[in-house]
Design brief:
Keywords: DNA-binding, Transcription, Transcription regulation. By secondary structure, this protein is mainly alpha-helical. It is built from 11 helices and no strands. About 20% of the residues are buried.
Length: about 240
């Protein structure tokens, strides 16, 4: 906009030219709009931190809003209740990933032993080594007290997760790379190391006495998958 003396009044046409238009291509959106669009993600990040640190029951929505730097009223604009907020955290960090993992499984061309190793590596990289692993520990500790959340977690996380593991086992059996077995039981042999690490890292690992041998998660998972494969390979 051109500088004009203070005594000059802009015409109506000039006024229209000086009004910011966030929809005009090439112009930056107002800071307020950018901030508003970022709020749901900031609230989910704050909620994940607090749910993992304090558990579901002890976390208050006021604390989540304060950590995200907004008011409680603003939080309720996006998430009407604490239960809705928790479900959104689970979908953002865990449940929303299964479509991606299914596509990766469909496209995998290696043998089934390599696929099982890949399963553990991907889980550790995207869930196990992140704060999202604390959601599993939270559900182990609080599922009985919040049956509606337990049912939600069962539908959104456990059922699609076990379905993917079942596909890996059935693939190996069908190709003759794994021995015939009850896949419904084998699923939990595969999941058990993941569950252990999720609980351990978010509980006892933080208070392990000095001098005790620390668990290396990657070494632990490598050992577990090799033991599983020894049991899965066809017998002579």
């Amino acid at each position: 906009m051109q500088h004009r003396p203070s005594s000059d009044l802009p015409s109506s046409a000039d006024s229209r030219q000086t009004v910011p238009d966030a929809a005009t291509p090439g112009r930056a959106r107002p800071r307020r709009a950018r901030r508003k669009n970022a709020r749901p993600g900031e609230l989910l990040d704050a909620a994940l931190d607090l749910f993992v640190e304090k558990g579901y029951a002890a976390t208050r929505v006021e604390e989540v809003a304060a950590r995200a730097g907004v008011s409680k009223g603003t939080l309720f604009l996006y998430f009407p209740s604490k239960e809705d907020l928790f479900k959104a955290v689970v979908r953002e960090n865990m449940a929303g990933r299964f479509a991606e993992w299914k596509l990766e499984l469909d496209a995998f061309e290696g043998n089934s032993a390599e696929l099982l190793r890949q399963c553990y590596a991907v889980w550790w990289e995207r869930i196990g080594s992140t704060k999202a692993s604390g959601i599993t520990k939270l559900m182990v500790g609080e599922a009985r007290n919040f049956p509606a959340l337990a049912q939600f977690y069962q539908q959104e996380v456990l059922q699609p997760g076990t379905a993917l593991v079942r596909r890996i086992l059935e693939r190996g059996i069908a190709r003759g790379e794994f021995r015939p077995m009850d896949a419904n039981t084998g699923i939990y042999l595969v999941l058990a190391p993941m569950l252990f690490l999720s609980v351990w890292q978010n509980s006892l690992a933080s208070c392990q006495p000095a001098g005790d041998a620390a668990i290396s998660p990657r070494a632990y998972l490598d050992a577990q998958v090799e033991n599983l494969l020894l049991g899965l390979v066809p017998r002579a």
